[in-house]
Amino acid sequence: MALIIKDVLKQKGITIKEFADMLNINRVNLSAQINGNPTLETLEKWCDALHVDISDLFEKTTTTVNCPNCGTTINIKVS
């Protein structure tokens, strides 16, 4: 699962610098967290600051399957 925090920030019109200021950390540390492997605690802080669910920080994938009975294509979103 890919982290899409940069996309979430862009959708909300928030820069990395502004987000770092919201979290009271410097931009370099925030960038390292975003590009690294943030802890659950860090992700929760981001969610609180952005007022989003933790699932919103991850890329949604779609899996396509065909019904074995009728052949209808079904798209299943996985988060």
Structure, described:
The protein is α+β, with helices and mostly antiparallel strands. 46% of the residues lie in helices and 15% in strands. The protein has a two-stranded antiparallel ribbon. The longest helix has 11 residues, at 40-50.
Q: How would you spell out the order of helices and strands?
A: HHHHEE
Give the strand line-up of the largest sheet: 1-2
Strand percentage lies at: 15-25%
Mean pLDDT: 90
Main sheet specs: 2 strands, antiparallel
Number of helices: 4
The low-confidence runs, each spanning 5 or more residues with pLDDT under 50, are none
Between the first and last Cα atoms, what is the distance in angstroms?
Answer: 8 Å
Structural class: alpha+beta
Helix content: 40-55%
- Tell me, briefly, the overall form: elongated
